Amino acid sequence: MAVQKLPIAKAINESLRAALDADPKVLVMGEDVGKLGGVFRVTDGLQKDFGEDRVIDTPLAESGIVGTAIGLALRGYRPVVEIQFDGFVFPAYDQIVTQLAKMHARALGKIKVPVVIRIPYGGGIGAVEHHSESPESLFAHVAGLKVVTPSNSSDAYWMLQQAIQSDDPVIYFEPKRRYWDKGEVNTDAIPDPLHKARAVREGTDATLVAYGPMVKTCLEAAAAAEEEGKSLEVVDLRSISPLDFDTVQASVEKTGRLIVVHEAPTFFGSGAEIAARVTERCFYHLEAPVLRVGGFHAPYPPARVEEDYLPGLDRVLDAVDRSLAY
């Protein structure tokens, strides 16, 4: 494929295709992933090309899907599980946190459980409840799980490749509102390490840290702020657990200010951990308190008002103004 411009959804499809082609032990399984190609068509064409034994349509039973994947992993397979929507993962939460996350430690390192769980997450698609949540911090809190999320097509391709190759379980969150955003994918490139954050825009006045769907929002905010003479650095975390605090620290030591942005509620969210850790590590470099921009501590609202719930350009820029006012 070399270099192509692909939507994020297609980049994930190509990554799955490459993994299936390279390793006969890789399996794709989930609700409607086969004949339908997934509700977002992310797995379109894979069952046709690799067969029903490797791209498996499962019953509507998330606990059973993940439990089966654990068993397959213990027998040497590398299952890639799709959870159809973010809110559907909770019937499988017990399997994930009490079995999948614990097996390696429980066996004193003798057992590997290379399971990837793909979860389309976040809002912005006008869906009902259980279709727009951002539960990443619930999984990041659990030792034994890696939690990652791409924000662009290149990372969507390469981070999934790296997740599938990992011997540890990986929760791979896909920003569904960005599925059709296009970007270049170079399949001959040498990718960044899976858990390495990346500064995607240089700046000097304040740092915006985001991941997944909010990276694009922060880049738009930085472009808008530039017109007012403000220079904002944007850091894409890429990985939520483990989290690359060194890259965040280096940026904050340069700018003196930090605003963390994510769709999930700010209350007990991943931004709280980042704020606490940066305060510990960068206290004498900070010119203002670390600020957070996120969703509200409330159930996800009806589609008619979701734009009021989701962090947008204005809320990010308001936080920047508050930070610069100190």
TrEMBL record:
Query: Which residues are in the Transketolase-like pyrimidine-binding domain?
Result: 6-181
Pfam families in the record: Transket_pyr, Transketolase_C
Q: Does the keyword Oxidoreductase apply?
A: yes
Q: Which SMART domains match?
A: Transket_pyr
UniProt keyword terms in alphabetical order: Oxidoreductase, Pyruvate, Thiamine pyrophosphate
Co-factor(s): thiamine diphosphate
**Source organism, top-level taxon:** Bacteria
Which GO molecular function annotations are given, in alphabetical order?
magnesium ion binding; oxidoreductase activity
Question: What CDD domains does this protein's entry cite?
Answer: TPP_PYR_E1-PDHc-beta_like (cd07036)
Mind telling me what this protein is named?
Putative Pyruvate dehydrogenase E1 component subunit beta
The record lists the lineage as: Bacteria, Bacillati, Actinomycetota, Actinomycetes, Kitasatosporales
